[in-house]
UniProtKB/TrEMBL annotation:
<feature type="domain" description="Arginine decarboxylase C-terminal helical">
    <location>
        <begin position="591"/>
        <end position="644"/>
    </location>
</feature>
<dbReference type="Pfam" id="PF02784">
    <property type="entry name" value="Orn_Arg_deC_N"/>
</dbReference>
<dbReference type="Pfam" id="PF17944">
    <property type="entry name" value="Arg_decarbox_C"/>
</dbReference>
<dbReference type="InterPro" id="IPR029066">
    <property type="entry name" value="PLP-binding_barrel"/>
</dbReference>
<comment type="function">
    <text>Catalyzes the biosynthesis of agmatine from arginine.</text>
</comment>
<keyword id="KW-0620">Polyamine biosynthesis</keyword>
<dbReference type="GO" id="GO:0006527">
    <property type="term" value="P:L-arginine catabolic process"/>
</dbReference>
<keyword id="KW-0210">Decarboxylase</keyword>
<feature type="domain" description="Arginine decarboxylase helical bundle">
    <location>
        <begin position="375"/>
        <end position="456"/>
    </location>
</feature>
<dbReference type="InterPro" id="IPR041128">
    <property type="entry name" value="Arg_decarbox_C"/>
</dbReference>
<keyword id="KW-0663">Pyridoxal phosphate</keyword>
<keyword id="KW-0745">Spermidine biosynthesis</keyword>
<dbReference type="InterPro" id="IPR022653">
    <property type="entry name" value="De-COase2_pyr-phos_BS"/>
</dbReference>
<dbReference type="GO" id="GO:0008295">
    <property type="term" value="P:spermidine biosynthetic process"/>
</dbReference>
<feature type="active site" description="Proton donor">
    <location>
        <position position="507"/>
    </location>
</feature>
<dbReference type="InterPro" id="IPR022644">
    <property type="entry name" value="De-COase2_N"/>
</dbReference>
<dbReference type="GO" id="GO:0008792">
    <property type="term" value="F:arginine decarboxylase activity"/>
</dbReference>
Length: 659
């Protein structure tokens, strides 16, 4: 039973919680647990050890009437990710005597939220950190947000005339704009428009890589990749540029191996292939000076440090070293000047800074109540079930498991035919759970557990109902089974005495999290845990969980399943003295908002409802006073949050009405 977590019997300490939930393994130094058992965020850019408890932030949100669920952004972490990346490349460049520079660009598609793009532009300016855009919309967002002399603007994607005009005009404004040719159709447009507008463009070419990449997100590379030029097309571009006397505009080679590349060897292989293209384009007479390696820098979601899909087997430093070293060696071999190195890290830049916070609404448990003493009215099948419990030993555990299923199924059959009543059936189900629990307890002490019984922990796990929508807030957990670290953000000084899976509040059976990062034998085998250790709920106390590393790709891929809308977004900045400020805040969608997204007109809805209740008054079904109450409830709901509200605005509006 390798997948089982051994819950320690000795007194529980926060150190045990650190091991169990793996904060140090996946947290990149940003997260820890304090002595009061609360999860803390460290101010990463600071040596004084400033830290803030997530529970203090939750309390601050409560005071501001910001209900759960909420997306929390820690601005210091975003800043730190940008400086880490730039400083790591800078250090390696200095150490290896590389004779050019690193220029990072942030790919907007990874998180296009204005507050993120603005922060990257503002904080990244000191490193000349630029942007990668893949559409006109992203281009417009970037041109109006960043300073023209702060970093590159790399234009990927299919470019029509308007896209190209935007870029050419930006070039005239002073932006360092690069047009990366992805298909042959955009080249004639670029040549013609730049002539017409009399602007010399910076041109790049995106090559189709044949290096195959392992990992979870791996279809971007290879011969059948939808992106990039084949070598034949590449030669075509060179010839056409030569004919147009524009070969001196071709300066940049672009490749993108894929996102979340777990294995460093794949990265090295890809860089080597890119270098080959680069060298030969130089030979062709192009003015090559930039090599852009795209994204792919992975995030260790599981903390396993392995080459399995959702992890990575290298450090940031190694990533930089392999890139700088491979390029330097190749260029030196061919006596070519060292090009500017560009990477387009998105995931690693924004993943860590966002946390989804939610409260637990309810729990379903699969626990038996103490079985009744036998009575003579009991059906004989019930007696048989009781009997099973008497011969339960490690040697006969599989037999007991088979028997208890057989009797339970028999009772269900007889119930269908009317030969067993509801009370008897209920007693049977209870004895069934009693038996399963005892069987599980027996298997815990066994070295070799029968295969069929290995899933018992899962089968008996609690279901904790969380106040969030998987489809809105964690779309990749649903669509591609991505794992994110999930854990309680308080009570970590107490033993987590339950095992659970999480269900969201959509009425979709796919709206659940039942795979968790491997907390025990981190072997990098990619096997996920089926249950998450949690604490029993307490009456009158909220229980809060956090889902971590959700800053990349989750925010705008989400959808309106069951019309649950955007959550509130709160941005916090941690100060050196461990205080913190709420620096930005965006109210989540109201019910009126989400209804209007699907083309309902809130004003019309109000009018129609008003007419309905007025008609009811006319028919004498309700009083005019009751009509007013109904309208108030309706109005308050329209303006309310789409998620479960503990103190619904309806109640408060009724209260004010009766005053
Ligand atoms: C998606 C994408 C990226 C970002 O990749 P990450 O792995 O998230 O860093 C970079 N460049 C291009 C061209 C992309 O399509």
């Amino acid at each position: 039973m390798t997948s089982m977590i051994k819950l320690p019997i000795a007194k529980w300490s926060v150190e045990d919680a650190r091991n169990l939930y793996g904060t140090e393994r996946w947290g990149n130094g940003y997260f820890n647990i304090n002595n009061s058992g609360e999860l803390v965020v460290e101010n990463p850019s600071n040596s004084v050890n400033a830290e803030v408890s997530l529970m203090d932030i939750v309390r601050g949100m409560k005071e501001r009437d910001l209900a759960m669920p909420a997306l929390l952004r820690i601005e210091n972490i975003l800043d730190q990710s940008i400086s880490q990346l730039n400083e790591a490349f800078q250090e390696v460049i200095t150490a290896e005597g590389y004779r050019s520079e690193y220029c990072g660009v942030y790919p907007v598609k990874v998180n296009q939220q204005a507050q993120i793009v603005e922060e990257v532009a503002q904080f990244g300016a000191q490193f000349n950190h630029g942007f990668e855009v893949g559409s006109k919309a992203e281009m417009i967002a970037v041109l109006s947000t960043m300073d023209e002399n702060c970093g590159l603007v790399v234009c990927n994607g299919y470019k029509d005339q308007e896209f190209i005009d935007l870029g050419l005009q930006a070039t005239r404004l002073g932006f360092d704009c690069f047009f990366v040719i992805e298909t042959l159709t955009e080249l004639p447009i670029l040549i013609e428009r730049s002539r017409l507008l009399n602007i010399k463009p910076n041109i790049g070419v995106r090559v189709k890589m044949t290096s195959q990449v392992s990992g979870y997100w791996n279809s971007t590379s290879g011969d059948r990749s939808v992106f990039g030029l084949s070598s034949r097309q590449l030669i075509d571009v060179v010839d056409r540029l030569k004919a147009a006397e524009m070969l001196d505009c071709l300066k940049l080679l672009h490749c993108h191996l894929g996102s979340q590349i777990p294995n460093i060897r794949d990265i090295r292989g890809g860089v080597l292939e890119a270098c080959r293209y680069f060298v030969d384009l130089c030979k062709e007479g192009a003015a090559m000076a930039y090599i852009d390696l795209g994204g792919g820098l992975a995030v260790d979601y599981t903390g396993a440090q392995s080459n399995a899909g959702q992890s990575r087997n290298y450090s940031l430093r190694e990533y930089c070293e392999d890139i700088v070293d491979t390029i330097k060696t190749t260029m030196d071999d061919h006596q070519l000047p060292h090009p500017v190195i560009i990477t387009e890290s998105g995931r690693a830049t924004v993943a860590y800074s966002s946390i989804l916070l939610f409260n637990i609404l309810d729990v379903a448990q699969f626990e038996p109540v103490p079985p009744k003493v036998s009575s003579e009215n009991d059906h004989e099948l019930i007696d048989n079930m009781r009997e099973v419990l008497t011969y339960l030993t490690p040697a006969r555990v599989q037999e007991c498991y088979n028997d208890i299923h057989y009797y339970r199924d028999e009772i269900r059959e007889l119930f269908k035919r009317g030969q067993v009543d509801l009370r008897m059936r209920s007693e049977g189900e209870n004895l069934f759970f009693e038996a399963l629990h005892r069987i599980r307890d027996v298997t815990r002490s066994m070295v070799h557990v029968p295969v069929e019984l290995e899933g018992l922990d899962e089968a008996l796990a609690d279901i904790y109902y969380g106040n969030f929508s998987l489809f809105q807030s964690l779309p990749d957990a649903w669509a591609i089974d991505q794992l994110f670290p999930v854990m309680p953000i308080h009570r970590l000084d107490e033993t987590p005495d339950r095992r659970a899976v999480l269900a969201d509040i959509t009425c979709d059976c796919d709206g659940k999290i039942d795979q968790f990062i491997n907390t025990s034998g981190i072997g990098g085998n990619g096997v996920a845990e089926k249950t998450l250790p949690l604490h029993s709920l307490r009456a009158d106390e909220e229980y809060y969980l956090g889902v971590f590393l959700v800053g990349a790709y989750q925010e705008t891929l989400g959808d309106l399943h069951n019309l649950f809308g955007d959550t509130h977004v709160v941005s916090v900045r941690i100060n050196d003295d461990s205080s913190f400020d709420f620096v930005k805040e965006i109210q989540g969608d109201t019910i009126a908002d989400v209804l209007s997204y699907v083309e309902f007109e809130p004003a019309q809805l109000r009018l129609k409802f008003r007419n309905k209740v007025e008609a009811a008054v006319q028919k004498g079904r309700i009083s005019a006073r009751e009509r007013q109450q109904m309208i108030k409830t309706f109005q308050a709901s329209l303006q309310g949050y789409t998620y479960y509200e503990k103190e619904p605005s309806v109640e408060s509006s009724l209260a004010t009405l009766t005053e």
